[in-house]
Amino acid sequence: MEKLRVDDFEIEKNDWGYYFSSCINFLEQESKVLLIYDTEEEGSEIELKNILSKSLEKINNILEKAEKNKAQLMELLKEGDYINLATDWVEGAEEVEGEENCYLIDDNKVYIPITEEDFEKSMNFSEIATDIYSDGKIKDISVYITFEPDYFAGHCIESYIDENGNFFINGLAG
After folding, report:
1. pLDDT tens for the chain, residues 1 to 174
2. What is the rounded distance in angstroms from the CA atom of residue 22 to the CA atom of residue 45?
3. Which residues of 109-129 are buried (b: 16+ CB within 10 A; e: fewer)?
4. pTM assigned to the model
5. Angle at Cα 17 formed by Cα 16 and Cα 23, nearest 5°?
6. Which of 9, 18, 56, 115 stands the most exposed, by the fewest C-beta atoms within 10 Å?
7. What is the rounded CA–CA span in Å between residue 54 and residue 13?
């Protein structure tokens, strides 16, 4: 995984502070990165980049560790019965006429039951987000997992990565 760098980020001011946005190749996929700095104070570009730099040291370290834990993430998804849940959601889609156990999702044919291999291949790590603070501290990193085909009809699985690079599943979101 290539490390995130300060110059990779766009900085945007909003009503609550600042958004820092970029992209990264995470678990072999292009993922959007969103860092939120909640402040009422106006920050200079130099101050904001210093805050970002301190936070990126921790974020890069955590994401590097998480890259080695994809098997742990898959185990959590199996334990949480998300593959069967995806199959249940797919059964609510339009059936393909003349094909047994086949459903149409976004013009894609999906056969049930969904296999572990198909489930894993369909995963997208669409967004990685966390709050950052002026001292460089961060919260647990959120990772939003979407699917192509869209098994969960616009919903995602929200997961977290702790400081040791371990995944935790929060559940469906959206």
Report:
1. 899 999 999 999 999 999 999 999 999 999 999 999 999 999 999 999 999 999 999 999 999 999 999 999 999 999 999 999 999 999 999 999 999 999 999 999 999 999 999 999 999 999 999 999 999 999 999 999 999 999 999 999 999 999 999 999 999 998
2. 16
3. ebebebeeebbeebbbbbbbb
4. 0.92
5. 115
6. 115
7. 19
Question: Which DSSP helix (H) or strand (E) runs through 58?
Answer: helix 45-67
| Entry field: residues in the chain | 174
Three-class secondary structure assignment of 133-168: CCCCCECCEEEEEEECCCCCCCCEEEEEECCCCCEE
| Identity of the residue numbered 97 | E
d(CA 27, CA 165): 13
Residue with tokens 């192509």: 148
